[in-house]
Amino acid sequence: MPTFADKIRLTTMLLKGKEVADQIKIEIAEEVKTIVDKGVRPPHLVAILVGEDGASKTYVKNKELACEKVGFSSTLVRLPESTSEEEVLAKIEEINNDDGIDGLIVQLPLPKHISEHKVTQAIDPAKDVDGFHDVSVGRLTKGQDTFISATPYGIIQLLERYKIETSGKHCVVIGRSNIVGRPMSILMSRSGNPGNCTVTLCHSRTVDLESYTKSADILIVALGIPEFVTGDMVKPGATVIDVGITRVDADTPRGYVLKGDVEFESSEKVAGYITPVPGGVGPMTIIGLMQNTLKSHNLKFSN
């Protein structure tokens, strides 16, 4: 006889970000083909990579592959670790002034001698397809049209594609970063669909965190701590969005495994919907970036 947990497990649905991302790439590629057939150049995304961080190189490569898949032009500007802050800012200014470029991202993290704030604020808001500029964040806060940070944008689309009801639900976001947690809380509370949630933003100083997670109809975890949330912290039937992805040493051919911020095995038995790691939020983050770049291009050529 199946236990209650087993019955819940049978109804748990994986939110397969990779499958959704693949479908959206097809849709973007069709739009780009229409653009090019009209004699207009395709969208062009530039990425600046400073240094030799392994994870950053992987992320940038994935973005290049995505650009190729949808028909974008892409350029990778590789700079050595020793590049000065002034040199990086000068390169950004050069790209800002190039009308043939629609989107610019600077891969984070940067070497310690370079200010991430100065770099992100130096990008022209019209090319800020990562959605990190204060102008983009400010417009988001006020409910105005803007470039939304790629990860929150991807999560919103994942919820939408799976037709997950959010109106009137309690959404708990764990993590208050300016890249994921804060914009995610704004998006989930805004009027619209997905949205119209009652949102609680939790963080490392939240007292009795479990009392909040157990009341969450939608739980979004973006802490960067592997397997921080366990199944006994999840409300039965909840939608669980795991933003984290960390390399954990393991006896495997690669020498590591990828772990999310949510302990998957125990949480899957309780949740109604859950994102896997990998293959959940990660592919949707790249989709957010692609769509922001397409939007920047279309705004330029619609004027």
Describe the protein's architecture and organization.
- With 303 residues, the chain is α/β, with parallel strands linked by helices.
- It contains 11 helices and 11 strands.
- The chain has helices at 4-11, 17-37, 54-70, 85-96, 116-122, 134-141, 150-161, 181-189, 209-213, 264-268, 281-302; strands spanning 13-14, 44-50, 73-79, 103-106, 170-174, 198-202, 218-221, 239-242, 246-249, 256-259, 273-274.
- The protein has a 6-stranded parallel sheet.
- A hairpin with a 6-residue loop joins strand 9 and strand 10.
- Helix 3 (54-70) crosses helix 11.
- The longest helix has 22 residues, at 281-302.
- The radius of gyration is 20 Å and the shape is globular.
Overall mean pLDDT stands at 94
Instruction: Give the class from helix and strand content and strand pairing.
Output: alpha/beta
User: What letter string, H or E per element, gives the SSE order?
Assistant: HEHEHEHEHHHEHEHEEEEHEH
What is the helical fraction, as a range of percent? 40-55%
What do we call the CATH homologous superfamily of the largest domain? Answer: NAD(P)-binding Rossmann-like Domain
Q: Can you list the strand order of the major beta sheet?
A: 1-11-8-7-5-6
How would you describe this structure in keywords?
11 helices, Rossmann fold, 6-stranded parallel β-sheet, single chain, 3-stranded parallel β-sheet, globular, 2 domains, 42% helix, alpha/beta, 11 strands, 303 residues
Kindly summarize this structure in a few lines.
The protein is of the alpha/beta class. The chain is built from 11 helices and 11 strands.
